[in-house]
Amino acid sequence: MNNRLINWFRYASPQTFYPLAGKMIPWFWALTAVFGIAGLYIGFFAAPTDAQQGEGYRIIFIHVPASWMSMFIYLVMAFWAALGLGFNTRLSGMMASALAPTGALMAFLSLWTGALWGKPMWGTWWVWDARLTSELILFFLYLGFIALQSAIDEPRRADKAGAVLALVGVINIPIIYFSVKWWNTLHQGASVSLTRSPSMAQAMLWGMLLMALAFWMYSIAVALARVRAIILERERHAGWVEELREVRQ
Fold first, then answer.
1. Torsion on CA atoms 178, 71, 211, 28, rounded to nearest 10
2. pLDDT-based confidence at 195, cuts 50/70/90?
3. In contact, 109 and 134? CB cutoff 8 Å
4. What is the pLDDT of residues 59-113, one digit of tens each?
């Protein structure tokens, strides 16, 4: 058991994690394509038309997975940031930095598709609804994290400053999730819950879950590709990076 733990801990080093990430990226891209094609087919062709919202409801197959991932990525980013802050590990800060742009993209997609969905349903592109407002704050937290790290030249100091911001911002995640329960809001409640049966047709549910998996696989693939670039940038003076460049040349 101890030997296995030691084998896993060795991947906490950027030097050993770099080739591992390179091997995993193609698999996650392949899974993204498989889940994405299946999810889009079910969501836009196989799923029935909604009785109340008509065909316009199909934007949920993009909106809902993006919203889920925007929150989940932030929690993972904050987890890596906390590890880096607590144990002063280089790779942890790099992982947090790699996740932030994808999290910001997911938050933007959530807001944008929500506006497209809200216009025909509510008659307006935007309302200062509790969930929409807290999701907008999440988007700004991602941008603030990225901007703060970019403003500090020394990477380790940038990681620590970003970690503090990321951990403070975690309080916004339960606010987003429970906003429809805590306040009177225009946003509908969750259609999928761990505590009760889903309030949608099986085809709709499968399409949404497959798209969520596609978004998840995409996020992992992009984060791994980005962290490899960050590793090469930050470790550019290390001997193993110099050797890698010589091999590529």
1. -150
2. very low
3. no
4. 999 999 999 999 999 999 999 999 999 988 899 999 999 999 999 999 999 999 9
- In whole angstroms, what is the distance from residue 80 CA to residue 96 CA? 6
CA 105 to chain centre: 8
- This prediction has a pTM of 0.88
Q: Which of 219, 185, 204 is nearest to 64 (CA)?
A: 204
First to last CA, the chain: 41
- How many Cβ atoms sit within 10 Å of the Cβ of residue 148? 15
206/140 Cα distance (integer angstroms): 31
Q: State the Cα–Cα distance between residues 133 and 63, nearest whole angstrom.
A: 16
DSSP-H helix ranges across 88-201? 90-122, 130-151, 155-169, 172-182
